[in-house]
Amino acid sequence: MEDSLINLIFLSEKRKNVLLLLLNGPNDINTIKKKLKASATSVQPQIKMLREKHLLVQEKDIYRLSDIGKIITEKMKPLLDTINVLEENADYLADRDLSKIPPFLLHRIGELGHCITIEPQIEHMFEMIPEFVKNAEEAKELRALISYFHPLFPSFYLELAKKGILVSLTFPESILRRWFENDYREQTRHFLEMENSKILVCKECEMFPTIVAADSFMEIALFPKDSAFDRKYLMSFEPGAIFWGKELYDYYEKSSEEVQNIDSYAAVSPEKTGKKAP
Which residues constitute the domain of residue 50? Predict the structure, then answer.
């Protein structure tokens, strides 16, 4: 029975799509045809086969998943979502270090849905990525784990906070020190003094992915396994991806410590670092 159900479902795109559609609720044949963009002659034989295997139930003109059909389809959807994400982004993910994504979220990577890849163009290599800038400036809340330094970051995130956007930034110690250097010290001090912004330090986050979790999008930049960091991100606007990104950020924020002000931060004091104070 197991083999026959697997063949029944996965050897027909239409049968699979009928099950996924009805997972959202019962529908009549006309609605099924419209949503699947298919004719009655192509859909009805597939529905008949699903009914014969007790995956669908017909009540007058309405079709719904049977109890068996619902159990199978609820298990099937996460697998299909995962396959779609990995297949769509195979060129990016194949050579990336996924080990820093906690298992409970890696198992749910299918929640990312449709992603786009963004990266700096060669003629704008030292600028910020326009797609990110545009969406960040339109956000109401933005939280980020930043694993590399960019000289435009301190002023950019300060400007976001000045616009009233809630901004939380988490850094590895080595990157945070760069923000506290002379060229960026006053910008960082101003950022810390604002009521809608905060900075945290994660002492166990070296070489971890850069994560941006906003209310309207998420993006992640994973380190390549065998080459230099390349500022190439996956970005998604789907609700499931936004929730996934917030969970990932929260996972690292829980093991981080909030920085109250520059002067009291022990990690950049001469006694702790062995360096001269900036």
Answer: 5-73
Q: What is the pLDDT of residue 19?
A: 95
158 located within any domain: yes
Helices (H), 163-269: 173-179, 182-193, 239-253
Q: Are residues 184 and 140 in the same domain?
A: yes
Residue 40 and residue 145: Cα distance in Å, rounded?
51
Residue 3 confidence (pLDDT): 53
Distances (CA, A) of 171 to 25, 145, 148, 176, 261: 44, 6, 9, 6, 15
Beta carbons of 63 and 29 less than 8 angstroms apart: yes
Q: Which residue has the tokens 């988490």?
A: 170
DSSP H helices in the chain: 2-10, 13-22, 29-36, 40-52, 67-88, 90-93, 103-106, 130-137, 153-162, 173-179, 182-193, 239-253, 270-273
Residues 145 and 245 in one domain: yes
User: Over the range 169-179, which residues count as b (16 or more CB within 10 Å of their CB) and which as e?
Assistant: bbbbbebbbbb
Please check whether residue 80 lies inside any domain of the structure: no
Q: Which of 39, 73, 107 is the last residue of a domain?
A: 73
Q: Could you say which of 73, 88, 106 is where a domain stops?
A: 73
At residue 163, the 3 state secondary structure works out as: coil
**Could you report the per-residue pLDDT of 144-156, keeping only the tens digit for each?**
999 999 999 999 9
pLDDT in tens, 189-200: 999 999 999 999
Q: How many domains does the chain have?
A: 2
pLDDT one-digit tens code per residue, 114-147: 999 998 887 767 789 999 999 999 999 999 999 9
